[in-house]
Amino acid sequence: MDESYDVIVLGTGLTECILSGLLSVEGKKVLHMDRNDYYGGESASLNLTQLYRKFRPDQQPPSQFGRDRDWNVDLIPKFAMASGEFTNILYHTDVTRYLEFRQIAGSYVYRDGRISKVPSNQTEAVSSPLMGIFEKRRAKKFFEFVQGYDFNNPATHQGLDLNTVPMTEVYKKFGLEPGTQDFVGHALALHLDDSYMTQPAKETYERICLYMNSMARYGKSPYIYPLYGLGELPQGFARLSAIYGGTYMLNKKVDELVYEDGKIVGVKSEGEVAKTKAVIGDPSYFPDKVKKTGQVVRAICILNHPIPNTADADSIQIVIPQKQVNRGHDIYIAAVSYAHNVAAKDYWTAIVSTIVETSDPEKELQPAMALLGPIAEKFISVSDLYEPVADGRADGVYITKSYDATSHFETTCQDVKDVYKRVTGNDLKVEGKVKKQEEGGAGAE
């Protein structure tokens, strides 16, 4: 291992694997290590035995759940927006050739005590119980405004310059009710809280357009999801890195980060030092260089039925906007099933997540748990959220952020782009596909 690398990456979470794939494609010599013996780190997918070993080490999985190999349970639920940044990265790197995606059947929002499908077209919008007849007219005018808005043509602005006016002004202009504002801000624009209301409306406009474009791509919902679970994604990027000469070492513990004059010069493992000028890694490898920003609580629930009131959908996302349940953060439900090769036949997994606000995190999930119907089994986890205290330019150590409570990849992509720019000095460009290189030649050790 006494070799020199352009970049050493620690941890095989999705963010780290995307970065090692992108850097390998650009010709950087990458070494990728993980103390675990499986890919995915925090974002792994586990079979039943692994799931019980993690949450209930003293128990065996019950026989009614079927075969171990039928299960790929995500520890962190995330869907990809069909036209989002993550899909652009997949397309750009051609990692899609290792994966098969399936559409998520529906996107739902919680309002006034019940869930309703987020309308996917004009017909659904007209019949949606989310709004009364007059509010539907106002909402229709709002969406027509969004679709017709052109930053370069003031005639389309209706007196609103989205570069400067806050979202509150836009809502006011169209007279949208608080419940509709919740729906637009949290189920369409996917904001994490209400701080967006006082920010310039441009970002919210762009997020709504992304949602609409993603919806238009396949119809039923804006989300897609890989067959066999999210654990396939880090492996796809690992294969990409290996094709371009990246070296992978699983089950390899990091004994020491080696510095000279305050700058990283290598990583020591089992008595050997791999030299490098840059290290990328997840927060667990750098406890002294990160700060805790909060906690996220997740409940992994196994169900033997579809979620009630979702037209027996094989997969859905439900957003519970914070104000609907008197909270400061939204609650998310991401459900997938045997249709995605992640559960035994006739089983679903629903993962409920939110940012912790009280000393009783599990109780905070209650409004969402109540929507699931009978739960066959549940596993609760509370994870600390970390982010780096420095940008890494001074010492060459670039640290990724923990995965938040959202059930989509857009925030993860922001982190990838941010770290990429700090490491390379350039913005990440994902237009068109990278040139294919033939498989073989390099690979995992």
From TrEMBL:
Entry GO MF terms: Rab GDP-dissociation inhibitor activity
GO cellular component: cytoplasm
UniProt record, GO biological process: protein transport; small GTPase-mediated signal transduction; vesicle-mediated transport
PANTHER family named in the record: RAB GDP DISSOCIATION INHIBITOR, RAB GDP-DISSOCIATION INHIBITOR
Family: Belongs to the Rab GDI family.
Protein name (database record): Rab GDP dissociation inhibitor
